[in-house]
Amino acid sequence: MTQASICTIGDEILIGQIVDTNSSHISQALNGLGIKVTRMLSIADEHDAIVEALEGELSLNDIVIVTGGLGPTKDDITKPALARLSGTDSYKTDERQLEIIHKLLSARGLDVLDINLAQASVPDTCEVIPNRLGTAPVMVFRFNEERFGHPATLYSLPGVPFEALGALEDIMEDIKAHNPLSDISHRTIMTYGIAESALAKKIEDWETSLPEDMHLAYLPNPLTGVRLRLSVYGGDKASHESRMEAELDRLRPVLGDLLYSDHDDSLEHCIGTILKEAGLTVSTAESCTGGTISAMFTSIPGSSEYFLGSVTSYANSVKTGVLGVPEEIIMKHGAVSSECVAAMAEGVRRLTGSDYSVATSGIAGPGGGSEEKPVGLVWIGVSSAKGTQTYKMVFKSDRKRNIERFASSALNLLRVKLVNELK
Question: What is the pTM of this model?
Answer without folding.
Answer: 0.72
